[in-house]
Amino acid sequence: VVVGEAHLFRYPTKDDPAILLRLPDDELRAYSQKCTHLGCVVYYSPDNDDELVCPCHEGFFDATTGVPTAGPPERPLPRIDVEVRDGTVWALNVEERA
Ligand code: FES
C-alpha cells in the first residue's frame, strides 16, 4: 500500500470486509469496513481531509482514529491492529469499541 491509498481485505473471517490505509504521515491503520450506523461499506477518501466515507447516509469517520466526524454514525469503526513483519502487513486482532 502506498501513502494515501487503501487496500481491501477480509478479517477476521472472509465475510468481514476490512480496509487497510497508509495515511499521509506514513502510519498504517486498519478498520472494519462496516459502518457503525447500519453496516454499509465505508471507503477511503484521501481527497476529503483523510476521512472514511459511508455513502449510504453520508457518514464520515476520521481516518486516523476511526471516530465518527459527521452524519448518523455514533460509534467509532472497529479498529484492527496491524503489524509489519518482513515487509508483510499482518492483521492481529479486532478491537471493538463502544
Ligand atoms: Fe453508514 Fe448509515 S450505514 S451512514
Plain-language structure description:
By secondary structure, the protein is mostly beta strands. The chain is built from no helices and nine strands. It has strands spanning 6-10, 17-22, 28-32, 43-45, 51-54, 59-62, 68-70, 79-85, 88-95. It has a four-stranded antiparallel sheet with strand order 4-5-6-7, with no helix packed on it. Strands 1-2-3 form a three-stranded antiparallel sheet, with no helix packed on it. Strands 8-9 form a two-stranded antiparallel ribbon. The model has no long low-confidence stretch (mean pLDDT 93). The chain binds FE2/S2 (inorganic) cluster. FE2/S2 (inorganic) cluster is lined by residues 35, 37-38, 40, 54, 56-57, 59, 71-73.
Instruction: Report the order of strands and helices.
Output: EEEEEEEEE
Per DSSP E runs of 2 or more residues, the count of β-strands stands at 9
Assembly status: single chain
Radius of gyration: 12 Å
What is the average of the pLDDT values?
A: 93
> Could you give a short account of the major beta sheet?
4 strands, antiparallel
- Terminus-to-terminus distance: 29 Å
Strand content: over 45%
- Point out poorly predicted stretches: none
Mass-distribution shape: globular
Distinct compounds present: FE2/S2 (inorganic) cluster
Q: Indicate the structural class.
A: mainly beta
Number of separate helices: 0
> Percent of residues in helical segments?
under 10%
Major sheet: arrangement of strands: 4-5-6-7
